[in-house]
Amino acid sequence: MDRTERILDLVALLLDAREPISWAELREHFPGDYGGSDDAAERKFERDKAELVELGFPLTYVQGDDERRDGYIVDRDAYYLPEADLSKEELAVLYAAGSAALASGAFPGRDDLAHALRKIGFFAGQSLPTPRVRMELGSVHEGQEKEISVRLEQLWDACAARKWVDLTYASPKQAGTTQRRVDPYGLALRRGAWTLVGYCHLRKDLRTFHVHRIRELKVNTARPRTPDFQVPADFSLEAHVAYFPWQHRFHEQVEVALHLSGTLASRAAGLLPGATLEPAEEGAVRARLPVTFVDGLMRFCLALGPDCRVEGPERAQARLREMASRIVSCHDDSLDKVSA
């Protein structure tokens, strides 16, 4: 059999086993592949084993004892994902979000996403109609979706394989373009704009790059099975891409204290990810949130209404009063014009 078929059969055998499989048993199951001389068979199996490990297959060798024999075994807890246990309503929301991303025309891992949507439909127990929703991309000119889609797929693969990329980048801070070699750590989508975060060899630091500003892209194809870099263990996309309006890195970080009451109290964890919550009076909570853009949080608080109150610091309270006053003034002017 060819190598791909042998690898798949090997995976099936190991997953079906209830106890470690010895090297002798493996040779019995694959006489045409692991037969012949001992050295040749062991070399072939070592290559297959290395490929399984590279693919993320949790294969380990255990030393036997009185209760268990020597052999290869799969860590099932590491291999199988935990049960999601989502309600039908949650499945519907997830399906709608995935469908919107797929319809955007520029989403990395499109084949994987389409496969996941089919699985959601299967577990929902019924045929789910494709929602008429679409995730719009910001800063993307008409006709540019296909180009963005191709680059996203390239970057997606480069991030997964940890291969450096050469890119021609048009920065808004300077005229013309620059050549960059980047170790891509991850991709993030925020408000319709895709951002690449990685180590820039030109700047010798972590940098963010808007994908729609990449003019040319080339992924390193040398030694495709060997990573070019390691992503630092403490790396976090959230530290470099602002997912929420108060996370833009315009100012030094400050802690803002909020008081949430009414229906907002029960939704505080979802409304303010990263906040430290503590109970206040009955039916209310206090939230302490690290903020690097106070104005962004104040606009968000105004949208939440009177059940959200800013308790400190004074700088944040002052900005909230200023914004609220401008809103009232604008509405007063509009009413005056209507009356006239």
Task: Summarize the model shown.
The chain is α+β, with helices and mostly antiparallel strands and 340 residues long. The protein has helices spanning 3-16, 23-29, 38-54, 76-79, 88-103, 110-123, 145-161, 263-266, 268-271, 294-304, 314-339, and strands spanning 59-62, 71-74, 165-169, 178-190, 193-200, 205-210, 214-219, 254-261, 276-279, 284-291, 308-312.
Describe this structure in words.
With 340 residues, the protein is of the alpha+beta class. It folds into 4 domains: 3-78; 88-124, no CATH class; 144-240; 254-332. It has 11 helices and 11 strands. A 5-stranded antiparallel beta sheet has the order 6-5-4-3-7, with helices on one face. Strands 9-10-8-11 form a 4-stranded antiparallel beta sheet. It has a two-stranded antiparallel sheet with strand order 1-2. α5 runs antiparallel to α6 (110-123) and α10 packs across α11 (314-339). The longest helix has 26 residues, at 314-339. The radius of gyration is 27 Å and the shape is globular.
Output mean pLDDT: 84
- Give the strand order, joined by hyphens, for the main sheet: 6-5-4-3-7
| Count of the separate structural domains | 4
Number of strands: 11
Q: Ranges with pLDDT <50 over ≥5 residues?
A: none
Structural class: alpha+beta
Number of helices: 11
Helix content: 25-40%
Question: What separation lies between the terminal Cα atoms?
Answer: 87 Å
The biggest sheet, with number of strands, parallel, antiparallel or mixed sense and barrel status, is: 5 strands, antiparallel
In N-to-C order, the SSE pattern is: HHHEEHHHHEEEEEEHHEEHEH
**C-alpha geometry:** globular
Q: Compute the gyration radius: what is it?
A: 27 Å
- Strand residues, percent: 15-25%
